[in-house]
Amino acid sequence: MPLTQEDADRVREIAILANEIRAALNPSKDRSQLSDFSQQIILLLLGFTLTTLAGGILTAWWKSHDLENQRGYLEKQKALDRAYALISQTSKEVATTVAAADDVLATYEGDGWTVQDIKERHENWAKSSRNWRINSQVLRAQIVPTFSDSTLRDKFDEIIKVRVELGRDITNLPRGKKAIAKDKNLQREHDSVLALIHKITGLLYDCVDRMIQRVNTVGGQ
Predict the structure, then answer these.
(1) Long-range own/partner contacts, residues 137-141 (CB < 8 A, 24 or more apart)
(2) Nearest-CA neighbor of 93 among 136, 125, 123?
(3) In this structure, what DSSP letter does residue 30 have?
(4) What's the rounded Cα separation, in Å, for the pair 175 and 104?
(5) Three-state secondary structure call for residue 36
(6) What's the pTM?
(7) pLDDT 10s digit of each residue in the chain, 221 long?
(8) Which helix (H) or strand (E) holds 213?
(9) Cα 210 to Cα 217: distance, rounded to the nearest angstrom
(10) CATH architecture entry for 72-219
């Protein structure tokens, strides 16, 4: 931060005053009214006074400059903290809903599942779906202002879109042993859900990777 015009004028005035006083204390020898010793004392006091005044101005300027640097660093650090927190929250929310879907899908693999097991996993899926509907919109609203990159929101929108397909396919899976036994397309339905889970996971990796790249780019500036 440069010196203000007022501070610069004060420094110039101090310098001019010093030169004028030095000139007054160093006239031609035939006009000198002060002893050399007295002149040296006055010049020493003058130098100390002028140095103190100018030094005070410069010290104030440096403190102001340092404070501005610290403020800029703190603001930058807060922005990085917000970005990493959003990356963590995005990963957590997507991973949670994907894990719930995978838990439901697992109940269609093998015969060792009790009625209670199946019920609990479907209830967990329903709970995660309710949370996802709210949290995904909150995350979406935070992405652009946090990363200043609309392409990241587009990537997250892909996750939301595929998650809608996943929810529909899981809802359409048969429930109960009789319904499962009668469903001739069960394997295809199972594979469709599994493919969507993998797709969302891949989109999440890509989205998080882009977020981290964006943070590293901005953080390195």
Answers:
(1) 139/86, 139/89, 139/90, 139/93
(2) 136
(3) G
(4) 11
(5) helix
(6) 0.66
(7) 554 555 555 545 545 555 554 554 454 444 444 445 444 544 554 454 445 545 555 566 566 656 666 666 667 778 788 888 999 999 999 999 999 999 999 999 888 888 899 999 999 999 999 999 999 999 999 998 888 788 888 999 999 999 999 999 999 999 888 888 888 888 999 999 999 999 999 999 999 998 888 888 765 44
(8) helix 186-219
(9) 10
(10) Up-down Bundle (1.20)
Q: Residue 12 is encoded by which pair of tokens?
A: 């110039």
Torsion of CA 152, 153, 157, 158, to 10 degrees: -10
Encoded amino acid at 168, one letter: R
Write the DSSP symbol of residue 75: H
From the list 25, 32, 62, the residue with the least C-alpha distance to 47 is 25
CA–CA separation, 33 and 127 (whole Å): 97
Give residue limits of the domains in the chain.
Answer: 5-69, 72-219
**Tokens matching residue 82:** 């917000």
> 170-177 — which CB contacts under 8 Å span 24+ positions?
170/101, 170/104, 170/105, 170/125, 173/104, 173/108, 175/122
Identify the residue whose tokens are 């420094």.
Answer: 11
The terminus-to-terminus CA distance of the chain in angstroms comes to 19
User: What whole-number distance in Å separates Cα of residue 185 and Cα of residue 87?
Assistant: 38
